[in-house]
Amino acid sequence: MNIEYFIAKRLITAKDYKSSISAPIIKIAISAIAIGMIMMIVSVATGIGLQQKIREKVSAFNGQIIISNYDNNNSEITLIPISKKQDFYPNFKSVPEVSHIQAIATKAGIIRTENAFEGIVFKGVGTDYNWNNIKEYLVEGKLPDFSKNLNEDVIISRFLADRLNLKLGDSFNTFFIKEEQGKLPNSRRFKIAGIFSSGFQDFDATYIIGDIRHIQRINKWNTDQIGAFEVFVKDFSEIKETGNQIYEQISSNLDTKTITEKYSYIFDWLQLFDFNIIVILGIMILVATINMVVALLVLILERTQMIGILKALGANNWKVRKVFLYNAFYLIMRGLFWGNLIGISLLLIQQQFGIIHLNPENYYVNQAPVYLNWGYIILLNLLTVTVCFLVLLIPSYIITKISPVKAIRFD
């Protein structure tokens, strides 16, 4: 029989336990652990969720690694075409970390309507384009089909549609400036097949997506000439290493750039979330630990006579300390139970209903995204229990200084 656990259990279930002097302090300690766990779960879930959502959006509209001609000079617009006839296309067999590769081309243009005009970048895509990356951002209409004859269907952002006073099914003229000076621009008439909204202002205010064959005809390219390749990888955390592998496998006239390099200002900003999460975890665990230390000291003070009696009966210091550590562990588990219950419930509500909204101009998303994973929740609980338990060993040491004679007479 575990006598220390038995005594601790009797203390917890005793009727005078809830009406004792230490009762309000114990409730505060439990509440502190619960609130701390709620804050930790929410901060980790929303921090990681925001990082993943922004990364997915940037990848959806740009690919994760871009293979282009050196002569493009980091321009968003295709200047000099490259051939689709590459050893790595359509399957990048030499780099197994690559999951998909697609050919694209871009060209600057101006959309002109009766009442407004907007500068845009026309992104031409073909039959190899993975529409699954864009599908979740489609808010109206359908995705165009470029597998058959050349057509005028495009998808445009809600932002551009509103600024140009266009709606689903409308047609509009787009003018593309020719490289040769003094010549009239090329004109194309497109029809809105779908409207998307990524919440990412840099993309929504810039891109429309249509058939790559329009760019090939305007630029007088061959059917096998394109602007760049967008590459997707299996493990984003290894994107830098995969980018280096791809660079080593392509020809010397081609260059690679990862989206972490292309949009370094975004990913540098995202890295700050890791630091913020660590700070929040540290503060919450510190607050919970301090409250538990105070509660344990009060419990020891309140049970001083009991400590003296146990020592007089032959219990050594460690056995007595274990009684109070069991008691403290029970309080910690109660706090963790309520903290997990409330924290996970809040995350599920946000995940299903998106109650908390964010300004897309500042956060690149319309609502707070949630990443719910049992792995980090279990780790947070283990971390809290371990840190609190180790710290509580220090105040429990005060029991070794209590004299049985003085403790029994303590009032």
Task: Indicate the low-confidence ranges by residue numbers.
Answer: none
Q: What structural class do helix, strand and pairing data support? A: alpha+beta
How many strands in all? 12
Q: Largest sheet at a glance?
A: 6 strands, mixed, barrel
Count, helices: 14
> How would you spell out the order of helices and strands?
HHEEEEHEEHEEHEHEEHEHHHHHHH
Global Rg: 32 Å
The separation of the N and C termini measures: 31 Å
Proportion of strand residues: 15-25%
Work out the helicity level.
Answer: 40-55%
Oligomer: single chain
- The 3D shape can be described as elongated
Question: Strands across the major sheet, in which order?
Answer: 3-4-9-6-8-7
Please state the average pLDDT score: 84
Describe this structure in words.
The chain has 411 residues and is an alpha+beta fold. Helix content is 50%, strand content 18%. It has helices at residues 3-13, 23-62, 132-135, 158-163, 201-204, 212-218, 239-249, 259-262, 264-302, 304-312, 317-353, 360-363, 374-396, 404-408, and strands at 65-69, 82-83, 98-112, 117-125, 138-141, 153-157, 171-176, 186-196, 207-211, 225-226, 228-233, 254-258. The strands form 2 sheets. Strands 3-4-9-6-8-7 form a 6-stranded mixed beta barrel. The chain has a two-stranded antiparallel sheet with strand order 2-10. Strand 3 and strand 4 form a beta hairpin. Helix 1 crosses helix 11 (317-353) and helix 2 packs antiparallel against helix 9. The longest helix has 40 residues, at 23-62.
